[in-house]
Amino acid sequence: MANEVTATMPVASGVMLSLRKHQRIPLGPSPVDHAYIVTSGLVLIEAKLPDRERQVLEILYASDVYCMHDAPESLEVALVAATSAELQRLRPDALSTLNRSDPEFASRVTAATAIRSARRTLHLASLNGQSGDERFADFLVEIGLFLGDPSAGGRSFDLPLTREETASYLSLNPDTLSRIFSRLKGSGVIRVSRGRAVVPDWSALTRLSPLSTALTELHAKSQAAL
Amino acid sequence: MANEVTATMPVASGVMLSLRKHQRIPLGPSPVDHAYIVTSGLVLIEAKLPDRERQVLEILYASDVYCMHDAPESLEVALVAATSAELQRLRPDALSTLNRSDPEFASRVTAATAIRSARRTLHLASLNGQSGDERFADFLVEIGLFLGDPSAGGRSFDLPLTREETASYLSLNPDTLSRIFSRLKGSGVIRVSRGRAVVPDWSALTRLSPLSTALTELHAKSQAAL
DNA sequence: CGTGTTGTTGAACTGTCTCAAGGACGGTGG
DNA sequence: CCACCGTCCTTGAGACAGTTCAACAACACG
């Protein structure tokens, strides 16, 4: 199968990349520090250390901006499409040119960067201080807010990450994650069928997530910035 | 005792803040999204969640830039001086004015932001994938690089964080950290007296730290950017 | 030289990981 | 349409790393 990334013709100062689910772009040592803007879909940041498994460090949503210098090269970072996704790739000079010539573009990039930074802070806070169950609840709130459709006090949304990706993102073992998930399904807070999650009572979930307030605040801010 | 932050007269578009060790600046809800630039010393980013202990999320070094919108308000972030420290506080408009009028300032802020972002990535990778011993080794390498004086194959440096702060930063319990530290001292990799650490064989320490390569790369980049 | 704070250490405990077996699902070919 | 296969998910039992609690030691400060 063609594992190549589809690159359409250059758009205004940059290249559009179309990724199918599970396709990856390794960010190897490169002469230029590209910047990537997520146009649609969900993209994971993965890193790999020598003699260790890949780990998922971050989730990127539409309108997020990722720069290659956000991580040292020796981490072997890669972008992985969790859903089919579209990215815009910009050379650093193109980015700064756009930033100077197009004030609206500049302010969108600034806002997107601030929101991503805050999201990273919350993820760190989630990993740092909390139990596996709480981290998973935080994760569901985050995904539910950014991907979900509200429906009468509840929400439903896709779960685009595999078990292993989710576990890595939450710094848990896949087995442990499965146990946590089972417990949560058993308690009736969430139902899942075919990769789609239904949370009948959203506030019941937020009560399990110590970061739900902060995540909601962040999501509101990111909605406002569009 | 005077627990007030000393603010000297406004310097060129901004205020200088002098902090003594352990002094803190709570970043409560504020009408303006201030930016803080660390001029000297070591500053911690702490966050607090309802019904939970404060946690240390990040270490800021000289020339780092912290913006209030790097975290949602409900996280109750505070800056804490780990050593005596000096900060420059800028209003957002002052920051963007400077960015436009002073290209050299702008490029220093951009470089500092990129380096801080990479440091955050490494910290996350350290917490995500590794054992307590490895995380602590990563921490020592980071501190040693940024604060240490090299000396014939070894390095010596201050340990400005309290046990509790270090433990929180590494997502460990202070007791566990103490055990890890004791083991490391027992193995002869590190000696400590009066808050100053001596590592006689730096490469022995780096061999214990999975992220040492990436941290060294990052530190070299931050040196180059000054 | 007390007194309070911070660091150390042991013993028991708990959450998470490991390993291995079994189950569910989705695709493929008869 | 069903049997087959591979892959991913689930679940139990045991092991282990890290936590908790409590007692003690080291240190800093008045």
Topology:
The structure is a homodimer of 226-residue chains.
Chain A: E1 6-7, E2 15-19, E3 24-26, E4 35-40, E5 43-47, E6 55-60, E7 65-67, E8 78-81, E9 85-90, H1 92-101, H2 103-129, H3 132-147, E10 149-151, E11 154-158, H4 163-169, H5 174-186, E12 191-193, E13 196-199, H6 202-208, H7 212-224
Antiparallel strand pairs in A: 1-2, 2-9, 3-8, 4-7, 4-9, 5-6, 5-8, 10-11, 11-13, 12-13
Helix pairs in contact in A: 1-2, 2-7, 3-7, 4-5
The structure holds a DNA duplex (30 and 30 nucleotides).
Molecular structure report:
The structure is a homodimer of 226-residue chains. Chain A has 226 residues and is of the alpha+beta class. Chain A is built from seven helices and 13 strands. In chain A, the strands form three sheets. Chain A has a five-stranded antiparallel sheet with strand order 1-2-9-4-7. In chain A, strands 3-8-5-6 form a four-stranded antiparallel sheet. A four-stranded antiparallel sheet of chain A has the order 10-11-13-12, covered by helices on one side. Chain A is globular, with a radius of gyration of 18 Å. The relative contact order of chain A is 0.13. The mean pLDDT of chain A is 90. The interface between A and B is large, with 38 and 38 residues. The first copy, chain A, binds a DNA duplex (30 and 30 nucleotides) through helix 5.
